[in-house]
Task: structure prediction
Amino acid sequence: MKSTPLSLIAGVVALAAVTGFAALTAPGDEGPVQAKAAARLPVERSSLLCPAPSTSDLADTTYTSFTPAGKGGGEAGAAELKPADTLSAEDASADKEKDGKDAKDKEKAADGKPVVSLKDLGRPATADTSDAGAPALVGTATGRFAPGWTAQQTTTAAAGGARGLLGVSCTAPDTDFWFPGASTGEARQDYVHLTNPDDTAAVADIELYGAEGPLESDVGEGIKVPARSSVPMLISTLTDEAAENVTVHVTTRTGRVGAAVSAAEDEVGSDWLASSEDPAATQILPGIPADATSVRLVAFAPGEDDADVKIQLLGKGGAFSPAGNDTLHIKSQMTASVDLKNVTRGEPGSIRLSPADGSGTPVVAALRVVRGTGAKQEIAFIPATGPVGERASVADNRAKGSMLSLAAPGATAEVKVTASAGSGGGEATVKTYTVKGGTTLQFTPETPAGLKGGYALTVETESGGPVYASRTLQLTEGGVDMFTVQTMPDDGGAVEVPAAEQDLSVLDD
Result:
């Protein structure tokens, strides 16, 4: 999960700059005073954005909102997801929000009733829709509901060109997103969805990079995303060049947005492609299903230097490099890909990318994963992600079809897994697991006692090395084992606040 600025933190830091510094070096002291360690405090406000789910009349969507039980940012608070105004690219470019009617529609959407409103900690809230025109959602959590708030949007499309199970964790607004694994090829229809949570317009740029470098595009510059609105852009219309593997880079000139890519591949399936972890020399992509029939790695080096990365599979019993694909050369500003085929060979696994030449060149990466064959294929994506850290959660788990993957690329680790109370009833269950270093542990989590409805999973690192996690959700429709994978980085529910003591003597002449 990407971090967002918090006004609370800014205020505390500013206070520390005025008064705390003086406390460390005040006149008359015998020497500098040892600075106090920063305190970790729960956040008091969180924002999440869910893209417009589907335009299909044959699609059903479930929204799930969840905040884990624990120390919150206060007794009061709320967590609500409300409709945004979904515009076409043409409407956005024409600046239609200045029109009186559109302004009224926008105000109605912003002030309308919540689609999902969370009532309790540790128990998810859900809502369903089959509306082909369902809008994007803009959400805010405050007080005790803010720390660790997560939301999931899951769409089941049983037929049509976008057939599949499409799942996405609603994203926090940011100014920079990387999406390796997109495509402008003829068989793909990929849209990048930009959602603006704020009361002023945002301006975004979309850059595309293929195997030979940047793809020419003027349309992707200066895209206006009106206040509290969402704009979907068909990626293939941003360039005349068809490329099977494309890296999409979304940045904002002004404001911030949430970004996600919906990908539909003819005769294969569809799913959401979430953004990769920020560029880094080492990347972990956790949770390849044991029965994957095809795995493609797509990577990109955004800097000025080429990258040579070592590819390792963290399997059930240990780490090894795929035969014939132990390294990948990634040229600067060019998208590289390699077909790892059925690399897991019947066992679950995760991919670790690390510098092969000691250069430490940052990269971003994602996996395109296919299960099934022929007419029963289905597709999902696994982007590089950050570690679980203190805590990570994923919403919308079902009594059947949920699978949790935990990868420990370094030292052995111990984690606590909590299956929350159900949205309609039941009691939470807690179990501890040991993940051996260099391996991936994949299992069906223990469901809550007396479960009614859906539930959430929360993973907490208890001891040992870093752990990377993902959840696979599977549903069978029309004989097709549809699936989607969501990664589980640290939820950012707590932040470090510098300790400061008031000393106004710094203001003396």
Observations:
- The mean pLDDT is 88.
